[in-house]
Amino acid sequence: MLRYLIRRIGAFLPTLLAASFLIFVFIRLIPGDPAAVMLGDQATPEAIEALRVEMGLEESLAVQYLRWLSDVVRGDLGDSIFFQVPVLELIVDGLETSVLLALMTMVWIVGFGLPVGMVAAARRGSWLDQSLSGMSMFLASVPTFWVGLYLILIFAAILGWLPSSGYPSIFGEGGLANLRYLLLPSIALAAPNAALIIRLTRASMLDVYREDYVRTARAKGIHPLRVIVRHVFRNALLTVVSAFGFTLAALISEAVVTETVFSLPGVGRMVVQSILRRDYPVIQGTILMIVLLYLAINLAVDILYAWLDPRVKLR
């Protein structure tokens, strides 16, 4: 197990380094000058040039990247050009919203996707299976922003049951009751991802259904529900666990549209606003943190998969 962990971590670090380089270079390809954005349309070319020199934008990309990378290694992601505060502070401020949104979305995905996928597999070929499969295809094809807008229209504007935008922290006034602000966004974000879990659970369970040990268990007269839960679902879960890991990591980046539609103060919306402002430190720092989180979740999933499945050799 230790050798396996060392090998996986050994692949983790070069991947993160390569990602940091690509992030830094591609952000510099965004049209626009952050110095010109900061000074406004009335700024003179001399003032813009002076600010570029002060910000170090006149240096070569290699020098800028190495300086930024050395700061990142020390835990310093730089200061926001627009807000004039540390980037890490901005990320921490938006992280609560994005993480809670991702976790609530996972609750919907697990609570809806797994049972529906199990029912569709257990009643394969029936009208119920066809209906559930059709519903999952519909959810997968509907844009997240469309779902979000209709949820706002029905549950906020017409019924008035839930708030349509914003999110006050659960650590402030209102406490856990403020989670109601994330109900509609989490449902909108969960719709396409739950469809993936439904189809994957169904397909994985149908593959297990064809195994000899399942036919043997059914031939012994074991109750069908016990066969499904103990033999079929348990072994099909390995594939679904991998999908959960990728889904959770992807939710952080997929939340950009949802946070914009619902005006949530999350990391995704902050990235969009920073791109419009050409705020290089915020963009590259935030995306680097998302990549780090993505790689960490993938590493955790690989370890969990190897632990669940004894057929995986941890050498």
Write up what this structure looks like.
The chain has two domains: 2-73, no CATH class; 87-308, MetI-like (MetI-like fold, Orthogonal Bundle), CATH 1.10.3720.10. The chain is globular, with a radius of gyration of 24 Å. It is built from twelve helices and no strands. The chain is mainly α and 315 residues long.
- Radius of gyration (CA) equals 24 Å
The proportion of residues in beta strands is under 5%
Corresponding CATH superfamily of the largest domain: MetI-like
The CATH class of the largest domain turns out to be Mainly Alpha
Shape: globular
Report the average pLDDT across residues. Answer: 80
Could you say what the CATH topology of the largest domain is called?
MetI-like fold
Amino- and carboxy-terminal Cα gap: 7 Å
Structural class: mainly alpha
CATH architecture of the largest domain: Orthogonal Bundle
The total domain count is: 2
Q: Give the helices and strands as they follow along the chain.
A: HHHHHHHHHHHH
Taking the sheet with the most strands, its summary is: none
Task: Summarize the amount of helix as a percent range.
Answer: over 70%
Describe the secondary structure blueprint for this structure.
Blueprint: H1 2-28, H2 34-39, H3 45-55, H4 61-73, H5 87-122, H6 127-141, H7 144-158, H8 183-209, H9 212-219, H10 224-261, H11 267-277, H12 280-308
Helix pairs in contact: 1-12, 5-6, 5-8, 5-10, 5-12, 6-8, 7-8, 8-10, 9-10, 10-11, 10-12, 11-12
